[in-house]
């Protein structure tokens, strides 16, 4: 008998997938299942959290012209 | 832009990009009496007009900014019925109305103009018996439709009937002197028109003409013009035969060509197959015929040819060899020897100098 | 997606949430049918027109044949929404659909012009003593409306709008503050977004708030909606009698007057005039942003020293903008209108302010903060385009002409496919690029960067016993359009939240539980 698991499907490119997995490794319990290269299943209440963490990680690598001024 | 964004997102985004832009529909009705006479048992012009008016109304009801134009092509000539170049709108309101006053305003204005002018047009044909034999003026009507479309697409901003721009249009004239001090609004008057609207357009040709004596070159030119301004030409063909030139027109412009077998159900065909707006065309499988006859017409006789001669200089198409041995279009001399060979009786294996439009490969000498 | 689309969804959503009895009552008015039809997405409009003159039910499989495969999901979604509006009804156990008979009859009557008398308002036949012409109405409408906008950004000089408007602004979360006194209200983030919209969207936003209010006031929603929709089909410059309106509609009239949608000389006057704001209610508007008009007024009154009253009423050409953007993302705006500057401040890092201009820069952070507030990249670009300085347009036009000339000289066909080829979608056509393409692309990229992940709520099906079991369910989920992802080898698939019930039902029927 098949089972159905509630969750949120996340579609992203592989690099972002790696970042999400990294977030998960620090605070386990976010990712429920790794589906394939570009898809992950995560917990419903963690979506905003993941988005915020991602933004933090990504903005580390952004050049801000005003920092130098 | 799309090339650099991730594929993952493009998959989903492509479907979302259907816009709801206003569109312009130009209907060309061919009223050459001969062809409609052939169809008298099946349908009359009056009935077709009824269906077309409902079709126009339906188009107008799609969007408040949608525009329609109606051109009639008759042996006497082509003419705009709506928007009418002669009457002002005020003048028309004072005339006795053919249409019930309760109709929605936008519909009523269009329907009235079309009906009245169509009546006068039919009167004219009745009084003008000698021009019946004239060739179809459909090509002319098509060019009129295209020029009108082009104007609406690029120059005329009035197609925007939105609140702000409309308010500006009316109040601008009064308050013109106010802005004189800045010198700004006068200068920008022209440049502001550059921002062309995202108006989509299409043309619907309704014809019952079976004679296929359309002027080939004007039609082809219209097709290229339509391609240039990305306007689709849809064709609703009534009558017994397919019209190969109109078929080519819709085929080359990504339009819909349908030969309507039962004209009684015209309104259903119009409101379904011919109702696919340009903006949603990418989403639909167009109900059109893939068997298009790409034949051309002879430049000398004007008859359509399946097999003929082509000038190697200018690609002019001929159904017969010109008597003076010169190309009728570019005036270049043909090689006399080869013409002699071509003219020889069919018993001899023909050697061709000029490539033939479509024929079996010639036997090599 | 453009702002209008987003907003339209909300009007339709409002209608979807109404109970079926009310919806059916609404469809009894031809004017309402027409207006609702106009608000539907383009593909839905096509489905409806193709069914209007077709008496028999249409089979769903027939409908599928119309659509290209990649449009299938959209088609299914549309049909569901039309069902929520009860515009189409299921017959034959869901294998066929048919149009709502009430809607079909009234919409068809509307197209053929045989609907009942006065379906589109009752025109006053007697001439009005106090002559009212179109330009007067335009002036009235724009004055009322601009007052609201100016009030929102706190332009001085402007009298506060009426208290009913104020409470609506507050209710809609566009302004906030203690009490209802105009002085205590301050504009919210949402309010700034509101200013970026075109005026049509703005009016609908307020009207929707009003509709929510009517629920509490025990007004008949059918009456209110019908009146709003009829307004959209009235004739500009004609007067209509009040006597044919219901009591609810008469009270509505007074409020609409405050927004500038209708003009009524006095409250007891027996006639009213719809203004342009009303007659274009149901029209598609890719309109010029109204913020620009107000800005132009300020410029105009400042530079020509006009007296205030004419500066208020006379709407200058809103097509002349004032913003210059350079390829290095620097923005110069020749304006001193608080409204314009406030709007610019939403997404531009403003640095310097002079007497007649402000300078600033588009930065990742400034654009991101705007994007995070729910403003879309599309809106930003559109706004900048409509407000671009005339000089930018002239330059863009020159560039375009050069490109076209180059192409014609080199025989490059940019206009469309050669005869016979149908792949003209691949051929790029030159467009007028008013803004530097680098800036446009970058703004879009910043938006893409914000949503690096796409999320869908739903359910993952797994642990299938056999491949065949998986295939059956997988195919069913795909057919009803709820499948988002599937993996054949690992026998897992993901369905949307909406589809779970149907798929679970189907699973219980097809797969006997052991």
UniProtKB/TrEMBL annotation, chain A:
Component of the 7-subunit TFIIH core complex composed of XPB/SSL2, XPD/RAD3, SSL1, TFB1, TFB2, TFB4 and TFB5, which is active in NER. The core complex associates with the 3-subunit CTD-kinase module TFIIK composed of CCL1, KIN28 and TFB3 to form the 10-subunit holoenzyme (holo-TFIIH) active in transcription. GO terms for biological process: nucleotide-excision repair, preincision complex assembly; transcription initiation at RNA polymerase II promoter. It comes from the Eukaryota. PANTHER family: GENERAL TRANSCRIPTION FACTOR IIH SUBUNIT 5. It is found in: Nucleus. In NER, TFIIH acts by opening DNA around the lesion to allow the excision of the damaged oligonucleotide and its replacement by a new DNA fragment. In transcription, TFIIH has an essential role in transcription initiation. When the pre-initiation complex (PIC) has been established, TFIIH is required for promoter opening and promoter escape. Keywords: DNA damage, DNA repair, Nucleus, Transcription, Transcription regulation. This is General transcription and DNA repair factor IIH subunit TFB5. Belongs to the TFB5 family. GO terms for cellular component: transcription factor TFIIH core complex; transcription factor TFIIH holo complex. Its main location: nucleus.
From TrEMBL, chain B:
Transmembrane segments: none annotated. GO terms for molecular function: zinc ion binding. One of its GO terms (cellular component) is transcription factor TFIIH core complex. One of its GO terms (biological process) is nucleotide-excision repair. Residues 169-196 are annotated as: Disordered. Component of the 7-subunit TFIIH core complex composed of XPB/SSL2, XPD/RAD3, SSL1, TFB1, TFB2, TFB4 and TFB5, which is active in NER. The core complex associates with the 3-subunit CTD-kinase module TFIIK composed of CCL1, KIN28 and TFB3 to form the 10-subunit holoenzyme (holo-TFIIH) active in transcription. Belongs to the TFB4 family. This is General transcription and DNA repair factor IIH subunit TFB4.
TrEMBL record, chain C:
This is RNA polymerase II transcription factor B subunit 2. Gene3D superfamilies: 3.30.70.2610. It is found in: Nucleus. InterPro entries: Tfb2_C, TFIIH_p52/Tfb2. GO terms for cellular component: transcription factor TFIIH core complex; transcription factor TFIIH holo complex. It comes from the Eukaryota. Pfam families: Tfb2, Tfb2_C. Keywords: DNA damage, DNA repair, Nucleus, Transcription, Transcription regulation. Residues 441-507 form the Transcription factor Tfb2 C-terminal domain. GO terms for biological process: nucleotide-excision repair; transcription by RNA polymerase II. One of its GO terms (molecular function) is ATPase activator activity. Belongs to the TFB2 family.
């Amino acid at each position: 008998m098949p089972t159905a698991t509630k969750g949120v499907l996340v579609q992203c490119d592989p690099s972002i997938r790696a970042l999400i997995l990294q977030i998960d490794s620090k605070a386990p319990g976010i990712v429920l299942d790794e589906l394939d290269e570009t898809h992950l299943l995560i917990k419903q209440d963690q979506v905003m959290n993941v988005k915020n963490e991602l933004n933090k990680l990504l903005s580390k690598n952004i050049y801000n012209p005003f920092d130098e001024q | 832009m799309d090339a650099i964004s991730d594929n993952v997102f493009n998959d989903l985004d492509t479907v979302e990009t259907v816009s709801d832009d206003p569109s312009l529909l130009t209907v060309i009705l061919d009223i050459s009496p001969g062809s409609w006479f052939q169809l008298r048992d099946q349908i009359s012009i009056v009935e077709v007009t009824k269906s077309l008016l409902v079709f126009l109304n339906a188009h107008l009801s799609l969007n408040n900014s949608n525009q329609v134009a109606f051109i009639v092509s008759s042996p006497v000539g082509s003419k705009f019925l709506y928007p009418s170049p002669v009457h002002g709108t005020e003048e028309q309101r004072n005339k006795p109305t053919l249409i019930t006053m309760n109709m929605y305003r936008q519909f009523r204005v269009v329907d009235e103009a079309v009906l009245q002018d169509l009546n006068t047009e039919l009167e004219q044909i009745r009084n003008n018996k000698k021009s019946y034999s004239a060739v179809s003026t459909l090509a002319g009507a098509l060019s009129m439709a295209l020029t009108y479309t082009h104007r609406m697409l690029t120059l005329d901003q009035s197609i925007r009937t939105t609140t702000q721009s409309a308010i500006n249009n009316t109040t601008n004239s009064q308050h013109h002197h106010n802005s004189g001090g800045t010198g700004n609004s006068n200068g920008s008057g022209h440049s502001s028109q550059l921002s062309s609207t995202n108006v989509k357009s299409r043309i619907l040709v309704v014809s019952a003409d079976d004679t296929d004596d359309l002027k080939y070159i004007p039609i082809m030119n219209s097709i290229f013009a339509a391609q240039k301004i990305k306007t689709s030409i849809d064709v609703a063909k009534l009558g017994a035969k397919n019209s190969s030139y109109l078929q080519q027109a819709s085929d080359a412009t990504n339009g819909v060509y349908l030969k309507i077998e039962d004209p009684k159900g015209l309104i259903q065909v119009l409101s379904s197959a011919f109702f696919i707006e340009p903006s949603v065309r990418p989403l639909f499988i167009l109900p059109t015929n893939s068997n298009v006859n790409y034949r051309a017409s002879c430049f000398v006789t004007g008859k359509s040819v399946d097999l003929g001669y082509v000038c190697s200089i200018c690609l002019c198409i001929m159904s017969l060899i010109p008597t003076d041995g010169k190309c009728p279009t570019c005036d270049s001399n043909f090689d006399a020897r080869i013409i002699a060979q071509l003219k020889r009786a069919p018993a001899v294996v023909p050697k061709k100098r000029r490539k033939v439009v479509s024929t079996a490969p010639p036997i090599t000498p | 997606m453009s702002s209008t689309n987003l907003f339209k969804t909300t009007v339709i959503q409002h209608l979807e949430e109404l109970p079926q009895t009310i919806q059916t009552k609404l469809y009894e008015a031809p004017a309402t049918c027409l207006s609702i039809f106009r608000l539907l997405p383009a593909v839905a409009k096509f489905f409806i027109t193709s069914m209007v003159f077709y008496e028999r039910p249409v089979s769903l499989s027939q409908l599928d044949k119309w659509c290209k495969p990649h449009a299938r999901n959209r088609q299914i979604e549309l049909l569901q929404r039309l069902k929520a509006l009860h515009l189409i009804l299921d017959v034959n156990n869901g294998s066929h659909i048919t149009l709502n008979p009430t809607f079909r009859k009234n919409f068809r009557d509307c197209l053929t012009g045989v609907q009942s008398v006065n379906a589109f308002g009752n025109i006053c036949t007697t001439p009005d003593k106090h002559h009212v012409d179109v330009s007067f109405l335009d002036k009235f409408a724009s004055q009322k409306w601009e007052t609201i906008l100016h009030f929102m950004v706190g332009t001085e000089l402007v009298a506060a709008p009426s208290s009913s408007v104020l409470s609506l602004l507050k209710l809609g979360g566009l302004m906030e503050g203690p009490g209802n006194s105009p002085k205590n209200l301050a504009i919210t983030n949402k309010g700034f977004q509101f200013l970026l919209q075109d005026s049509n969207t703005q009016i609908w936003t307020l009207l929707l708030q009003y509709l929510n209010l009517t629920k509490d006031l025990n007004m008949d929603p059918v009456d209110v909606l019908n009146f709003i929709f009829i307004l959209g089909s009235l004739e500009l410059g004609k007067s209509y009698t009040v006597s044919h309106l219901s009591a609810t509609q008469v009270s509505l009239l007074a409020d609409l007057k405050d927004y500038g949608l209708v003009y009524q000389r006095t409250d007891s006057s027996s006639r009213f005039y719809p203004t342009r704001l009303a007659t274009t209610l149901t029209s598609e508007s890719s309109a010029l942003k109204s913020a620009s008009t107000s800005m132009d007024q300020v410029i105009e009154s400042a530079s020509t020293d006009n007296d205030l009253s004419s500066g208020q009423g006379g709407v200058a050409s809103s097509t002349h903008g004032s913003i210059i953007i350079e390829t290095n993302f620097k923005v110069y705006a020749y304006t001193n209108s608080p409204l314009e500057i406030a709007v610019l401040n939403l997404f531009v890092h403003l640095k310097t302010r002079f007497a007649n201009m402000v300078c600033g820069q588009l930065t990742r952070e400034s654009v991101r903060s705007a994007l995070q507030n729910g403003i879309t990249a599309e809106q930003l670009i559109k706004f900048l385009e409509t407000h671009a300085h005339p000089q930018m347009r002239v330059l863009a036009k020159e560039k375009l002409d050069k490109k076209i000339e180059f192409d014609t000289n080199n025989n490059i066909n940019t206009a469309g496919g050669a005869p016979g080829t149908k792949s003209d979608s691949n051929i790029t056509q030159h467009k007028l690029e008013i803004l530097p393409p680098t800036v446009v692309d970058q703004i879009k990229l910043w938006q893409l960067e914000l949503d690096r992940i796409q999320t869908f709520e739903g359910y993952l099906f797994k642990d299938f016993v056999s491949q065949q079991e998986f295939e059956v369910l997988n195919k069913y989920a795909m057919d009803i359009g709820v499948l988002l992802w599937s993996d054949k080898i690992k026998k897992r698939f993901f369905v949307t939240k909406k589809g779970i019930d149907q798929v679970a039902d189907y699973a219980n029927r097809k797969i006997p539980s052991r």
